[in-house]
TrEMBL record:
Family as reported in the entry's similarity comment: Belongs to the cation transport ATPase (P-type) (TC 3.A.3) family. Type IB subfamily.
Keyword Transmembrane helix included in the entry's annotation: yes
Reaction equation(s) it catalyzes: Cd(2+)(in) + ATP + H2O = Cd(2+)(out) + ADP + phosphate + H(+)
E.C. number(s) listed in UniProt: 7.2.2.21
Localization in the cell: Membrane
Chief place of localization: membrane
GO CC list: membrane
Parts of the chain that traverse the membrane: 15-34, 41-65
SUPFAM superfamilies tied to this protein: Calcium ATPase, transmembrane domain M, Metal cation-transporting ATPase, ATP-binding domain N
Keywords: Cadmium, Membrane, Transmembrane, Transmembrane helix
Organism: Clostridium perfringens
GO molecular function, one term: ATP binding
Protein name: Cd(2+)-exporting ATPase
Amino acid sequence: ADASKAEIVGVADKWATYIVVAAFSSAILTWLVTGEIIRAVTILVVFCPCALVLATPTAIVAAIGNVSKHGILVKEGDALERLSQVSKITFDKTGTLTYGKPKVEEVVSVMNNLSNEELYEMIASCELYSEHPLGRAI
């Protein structure tokens, strides 16, 4: 579960409070008018805001689980709501947007007497048994 509540959860809790007050008032009024406790209990069951209170956090947890399956880490449920207001994203760390599999794009020799192919062969032979991710990419 997340540490901070999403705004929608607070809204649901606030409405649930009003609904509970209305439910108790209606149940008491029904019992006083009809004298039948079963009708008052029926009012309480029908008015119960449990679905509203439970469904909202459940939906947020399900959304966090869904995005995590796609490799996205969401620390707080509130972040999902704030994400709808984002218009620009800036990434500041190296490796933030990678596949985790380095790939050699180009080999360039700075020595005039060595061709790129010869340089690539030399580097590849040095990295042949390397376990480092960058060595494996070569």
